[in-house]
Write a structure and sequence with these properties.
Structural class: alpha/beta
Largest sheet: 6 strands, mixed
Number of strands: 10
Strand content: 15-25%
Shape: globular
Radius of gyration: 18 Å
Order of helices and strands: EHEHEHEHEHHEHHEHEHHEEH
Mean pLDDT: 92
Number of helices: 12
Strand order of the largest sheet: 4-3-1-2-9-10
Length: 272
Amino acid sequence: MKIGIFDSGIGGLSVLHEAYHRLPQQEYIFYADVEHVPYGLKTPEQITEYAIENTQFLLDKGAQALVVACNTATSVAIKELRRRFDIPILGMEPAVKPAVEGTEEKRIMVIATPVTIREDKLKDLLHRVDEEHRVDLMPMPRLVEFAEKEEFDTNEVSNYIRGQFANFDPSNYSALVLGCTHFNYFKPALREFFGQDTLLIDGNFGTIHHLADVLGIGMNEEQNTEVFFDDYHKILGSVKTEYYFSKKSVKDENTLEHLKRLHNRLEQVRKI
């Protein structure tokens, strides 16, 4: 089956990367809407327009199911996409429920884009699962910008994280929920700030697990994908993935190398 995955930029690669581990036998089309990144600072009307265009492009390329690998686009546009298009369409949401159910007493921090934090979808989720009002919210839009520049471990990134949390004591938090797919790249810096006792939770596994259920296909409990990362030819070839950056097929050597580095980064930080 050919599965389409789109995001505003390279954050959605973290969802694709999880799919490589769990559903390695499927075919994928990955679409990064790099002309419009970041979505987190756009209007809902703009985001919905981009999401519709991205979905139509992926359907035209043969996608039989779709993952909106962007929390922001999910929160704004998922209902409209499902209304317009007659294929299975899955979205992302911050993994608040597993964070609440998997921890006790201490607080939970959810980091996301300003749009995700502002939209009703997250508010409704918190109303359902955060009965004890343990969750705090923090917009972190610059992490998207850093990720798109492939800037993960610099002093500027660390200073930004410390500045955003200047009024919070990290020892008060039992879990940090990564509510944007771009944020997975920053697990080392976030781990350094919050410490080893704070769980880092993202929605990627849950999304791919749901995808497997919806499509009725088996999911590997774990897949050793070291073979995928020894060179970019195997990333972009034997895994049966087509990559598009804003409707342009990725073929040039520099961009292929960029994708290789990003996949390697995601593999390195996956278990942090």
